[in-house]
Predict the 3D structure of the following.
Amino acid sequence: MRSFITEFIGTFFLVLTVGCTVLAKAPMAPLAIGAVLMVMVYAGGHVSGAHYNPAVTLAVFLRGRIGLADAAYYWGAQMIAGVSAALTARYVVHPAEVAELSPSGRSLGTALVVETLFTLALAYVVLNVATSKDQPGNDFYGLAIGFTVAAGAFAVGGISGGAFNPAVATGAASIGMFAWSKIWIWLLAEFVGGAVAAAAFLAVNPEDRAALETSPS
């Protein structure tokens, strides 16, 4: 239970920061988002692994570090936290209007590409800095994870919204930032990115793969 509560808290503050900074049109929103993810990773990493992202949880599950039942509870906590935080951000900022992102045509394709790539990058970084047997107890994992999100948000936030996280995407749709009719773009891209990250991690970390294959079921 403490892991699920930790996932809720971390995801809540991540999505709350996303919502408040984007709705308020803060110029340094990506930096704030990366910073809050970093501190929440440091705060909760020792309890739950600090996924705060259903795509990351999928990657960790496929990598073999979490069971399906726990992954399902993580997903539930993360999605509930995402919607709750987004509605809180909408209430706090209370914008006169919310611009809805609804990609179509070429922009739909580019949104799929960049959301997949940067979710892949995020999940790949998480797996390497937080689950690899070669880096036990390192003290830079939170910084690496937070800056991956900040870099992605600066790079492609104007193209896809820079969610890289199904909980963020669902929260954004809940307050009108993303079109519900197009939410599949973010969900598909992000879960694919998480799955590919797990495959890439296992491909380039053969000792971790061997440990996974020899571990008891």
